[in-house]
Automatic annotation (TrEMBL):
Gene: purD
InterPro entries, A to Z: ATP-grasp, ATP_grasp_subdomain_1, PreATP-grasp_dom_sf, PRibGlycinamid_synth_ATP-grasp, PRibGlycinamide_synth, PRibGlycinamide_synth_C-dom, PRibGlycinamide_synth_C_sf, PRibGlycinamide_synth_CS
Every ATP-grasp domain range: 107-313
A Pfam family of this chain: GARS_A
Listed EC numbers: 6.3.4.13
Enzyme class: ligase
Catalytic activity: 5-phospho-beta-D-ribosylamine + glycine + ATP = N(1)-(5-phospho-beta-D-ribosyl)glycinamide + ADP + phosphate + H(+)
Ranges annotated as spanning the membrane: none
Naturally occurring in which organism (per UniProt): candidate division WOR-1 bacterium RIFOXYC2_FULL_41_25
GO biological process: 'de novo' IMP biosynthetic process; purine nucleobase biosynthetic process
Keyword Manganese listed: yes
Protein name: Phosphoribosylamine--glycine ligase
Pathway stated in the Swiss-Prot or TrEMBL entry: Purine metabolism; IMP biosynthesis via de novo pathway; N(1)-(5-phospho-D-ribosyl)glycinamide from 5-phospho-alpha-D-ribose 1-diphosphate: step 2/2
Amino acid sequence: MKVLVIGSGGREHALVWKISQSPKVDKIYCAPGNAGTAEFAENVNIKVDDIAGLLNFAQEKKIDLTVVGPEIPLVLGVVDEFDKAGLKAFGPSKAAAQLEGSKAFAKNIMVKYDIPTAQTGIFTDPAKAIAYINEMGAPIVVKADGLAAGKGVLICQTTAEAITAVKDIMEKKEFGSAGDTVVIEECLVGEEASILALTDGKSIVPLETSQDHKRIYDGDKGPNTGGMGAYSPAPVITDHLMSQIDVEVLRPLVAGMAQEGIPYKGIIYAGIMVTKQGPKVLEFNCRFGDPETQPILMRMKSDIVPIFQAVIDGKLNNREIEWHEKAAVCVVIAAGGYPGKYEKGMPITGIDKVDQLANAYVFHAGTKFPGPVTSGGRVLGVTALGDNIKFAIKNAYQAVEMIKFKGMQYRKDIGKKALKYL
Ligand code: AMP
Ligand code: GLY
């Protein structure tokens, strides 16, 4: 069969890599892809938001399965368009993708279906938002409602900071129309984890747990990024907590969306804060996490292609997924200056050396040929397996040290939080 993967990040390289291992697959295309996806797939130069272009291509090539990586095409309705054309695409519909596309929509669902989350106010009037901030006090979290490439969440230590954030988002339109509505939340304290689950709208199959590292510097310091590293499993999520998340978050969410008449199909990503009062939802994403997907898929033994097909066909039926017992760690190597301004076009060396290692693999993100050279902020996700998290960390960093490009930066503490549970 022929598969199309939409996207160009580390997540998409991991998806292409995993899909390429399926005996069912003859040919993979990746739009637009990166230097890493080119090893297993034919990269095609179509942008992720060019829905008509993607559909044309899939029709012309008679693609049997399309897997959508990023949120933008999902929120634009790529799956609806493919459905209408009789093509199979993995991911939620436009209406269901609002769980990520609108934080206000997601909050309203959580409140209606009693899903534990931070106490929240939703506002379209800045004066009312400011009055709410003054009533609640600081610390407090201000979020732009719409998609803002991960930058629309501001954790404010003072009410003055929060009021400035409201003005920047709603009046100065720092994130454009994504800031027409703001969501203001109680600041939750605890350890975060990423819970990803497959669902066909009825059955729910959680993947193995993982934890991201959102800040740029060691010790969770500095500005937020797309994610500087991840590991799986995340021991903060005990079996007890996982069943609590299943019962209190995943089940009511999937049942609630069905009740709303917008059944959710695809992968649902719940960002969870483990607070003293139990797990609470920080956000929903309507797609695989990046970089969480890299360590998760490295641990997946099962063929992923029949799983995608079962979700699309509504036949997930609590399917069992097989996992490696080992732990996996992904260390992201970013361009100097990221998440601010950074240079592109730096030649990268050492990937061939990592290829010699049995336990490690380099997933590309912002790279391109000829070279490879750097072409984005997050450049590579060096991912390794180990008998436990400690060895996975050691193996990942051993591989990281083989990679060189000018200005490269990476966190030295990926996975460290998991060590205390050993
Ligand atoms: P989001 O895009 O909503 O996940 O927010 C990005 C990051 O901001 C999360 O991963 C958290 O680290 C942090 N965050 C979001 N909401 C809250 C909250 N209510 N309390 C504390 N931290 C939060
Ligand atoms: N790693 C965070 C995200 O994918 O949103």
